[in-house]
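User: Show me an example of a complex going from sequences to structure tokens.

Assistant: Sure. Here are the input components:
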Amino acid sequence: MKNRNFITTQDFSPEELGRLIFRARELKQGGVQRTPLAGKSVALIFLNPSLRTRATMELAVRLLGGTPLTMNVGTDSWTLEHREGAVMNAGKTEHVKDAARVLSRIVDAIGVRAFAGLENLEDDLADPVISAFARYAEVPVLNMESALYHPMQGMADLMTVTERRGSTRGVKAALTWAPHPKALPTAVANSFLLAATRLGVEVTVAAPPEFPLPDPVMRLAAGNPGKVRTTTRQEEALAGAHVVCAKSWGSLACYGRPEVETKIRSRYADWIVDDKKMAGAGDAFFLHCLPVRRNVEVADAVLDGPRSAVYDEAENRLHVQAAILEAIL
Amino acid sequence: MKNRNFITTQDFSPEELGRLIFRARELKQGGVQRTPLAGKSVALIFLNPSLRTRATMELAVRLLGGTPLTMNVGTDSWTLEHREGAVMNAGKTEHVKDAARVLSRIVDAIGVRAFAGLENLEDDLADPVISAFARYAEVPVLNMESALYHPMQGMADLMTVTERRGSTRGVKAALTWAPHPKALPTAVANSFLLAATRLGVEVTVAAPPEFPLPDPVMRLAAGNPGKVRTTTRQEEALAGAHVVCAKSWGSLACYGRPEVETKIRSRYADWIVDDKKMAGAGDAFFLHCLPVRRNVEVADAVLDGPRSAVYDEAENRLHVQAAILEAIL
Amino acid sequence: MKNRNFITTQDFSPEELGRLIFRARELKQGGVQRTPLAGKSVALIFLNPSLRTRATMELAVRLLGGTPLTMNVGTDSWTLEHREGAVMNAGKTEHVKDAARVLSRIVDAIGVRAFAGLENLEDDLADPVISAFARYAEVPVLNMESALYHPMQGMADLMTVTERRGSTRGVKAALTWAPHPKALPTAVANSFLLAATRLGVEVTVAAPPEFPLPDPVMRLAAGNPGKVRTTTRQEEALAGAHVVCAKSWGSLACYGRPEVETKIRSRYADWIVDDKKMAGAGDAFFLHCLPVRRNVEVADAVLDGPRSAVYDEAENRLHVQAAILEAIL
């Protein structure tokens, strides 16, 4: 996997993803014995805030002996233009072309976090910022959550499934939409769906009718080994699931129209995942990428209860990212 | 002291505090010979700005061989909710419970800076953010200044006293309120008072009548070995002191009412510590935690004069924090 | 060069600058073999944003075995007052005097980035922030771009000239003003001019009549070994040049009057450096410090074309800074 980008799990075969998870579990068990990143550095470019991603990426680079260079775009460094050929006479102060090429001269990989703009669906579906970095960089580009994908999260989720169930074989997952005070991107849900189905997990996506996942993502998932079903009835998805993954996202039906979207979203406050609903999911364990709006998306009793795997899931970010860095650099 | 929190000096015996200061002086003299934090990492979580704390904590961790992970909450990472059971449908995006538990999985200690809100006295007296971290973290929590305490500063102050006077035995200190353009928290003053009295120093607190220190802190100080007196006459406190520690703080008498507070505070501009006042303090040396509003709190002549120990005091932050990290991790 | 400040290339002899460039090229070729900064740390203080400077300074310090301490003034740390004797009862929270003295106790050098304020020409010509750091610091101060100078950039520019032309002997350079949506400081242009002329390069400065470089800088350049000419005709400067360096800066003729300045600046949009103009410069190569407003300052075809040396120039920041750190610390 040397020198490849890590933009989406779809770019890697199920075998490759499986090997990465296997290696991540080794690293978690035995600690890191080698320093394959000695003398190497990784730029970590944040256009959006982060706790887990920042902490676990910095640590993963260091544990492997490398040097992280963390930058907040727009405060630490310059705001970024990504459109090829742009006449840069407005607010954006540096082109991704230049940032990516300059960083490529001095670091060994570039991690990028650039959330969806949530204004224009077509723009977000093109995943413009991470795509621009991938186009212009001359070193591997690592996706630390883009408009469309959060593959490190998806890998940590599937590593957690593997830890709890031995493997991903025969596993049934419910990916349920959850309420939230704000419209959020679909990246985390997309990457859970894609990573899970690529590794053979059968996924039922439950969401209110106005909250489908993006068509292109659903089509990619449909081409993966694991089956995909969708439902607008949450309890149907939870019944028989081995793992329940909750996440909120904004309505694709009224993208870029926040007033309408807020009104529609507010109708579904009862999609909160609570103990009663989890009771309908047998002995399934519970995943959420965090941060979570407690008692809005998910009840305290679920997050703090015995079936919650959310802290394992967060910790696994560290190990899976170390495995990816080791494989690529 | 392994695996204990460092939230306030009150949690440590005078002997333990003395040992930490002794070790800090050794580290300052001989340099650091060992790397007890090798392979370990410490999250440094800032809800407020910092120069000395950030620089000296990062350096202390590195000098001992460890990795600091520095994060500004709300810009680098998510805003934090600390109330147990909160329904998180408003502005705060992540619960301390989750941040503390996640960090506990990947680092070996968590340093937290979270100033007083200065809106509700009862809230601030409960020291809510650092208490929430201490409640939920599974690794030691280090106080890098909370609503109520700044124990690292208190320890650096007392280390400086020890350097200048040989020991803390028989030392008389004046802790004097000082003018300032803004209402400030009491944390630094509280921790000077508590660390000093715990180590046997006799402290006279001088402040205008509307500017007492918090009752619970005064009661704790009263239970310590060193005597405490209070006065509203600044010159009385300075007379006979071996050390003068100046600090501004807001009026507890009109907490959360900034207009009233500002009016009252502005009456006491003549509490500035200048050369004339220091002349009344014999050969006492001078402490201030910095940053200082020059020529408002303290005159240039004092800060830049031969009796100023403020840069020793700042440097000692590095050594005392290294000693604390070494003892706890 | 041990223990000297690096504020402007004028403080160093042509021989010293030449040795630094020679060493930077060695470091670039052979990698860094030694760790002369082991056990040392360098504070990197940013009052303004940065991508290249932040990334290359952090990396240079680390490559040499040292520890960088990066701080954004005003967000990470406190806002800074620099006027001696100031009564600090307004917005600024800490004096450079205290910040510089405290940092001097705990680090081995202090890098400072503090752009021109662009409000008062006399103030900016005094280069107040970096001068204050230099006055109060007890360790070497490194200029990471001040109101007047960007000497690390100037050195990287001249290193690039040396790489492309073998040496700086007999080299003719065009330093051309370029259009930009905003008024910018003159620091980069000043330091290119000073570093180039100090190393014997013959420089023609081309700019519209309202955009001279500061008189004191022109006088310094006139005293250097290389000749200086000025012209208001861009094509005249480009003809016969071996290297074209483009940069935008604001009009000194209407400093601090943004409305007037914007109107004047907007008249010169045709000063964009494009392929047609570069054709008039024979086989000259092209420099720009980045970030660049593509298709406003410089056309894509130039930046992305075979004569562009802008990424070499950016990479050389790393090597030349490593050479400077090694020489000074």
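The lines above are the inputs; the final block is the predicted structure for all three components together. Chain C has 13 helices and eleven strands.
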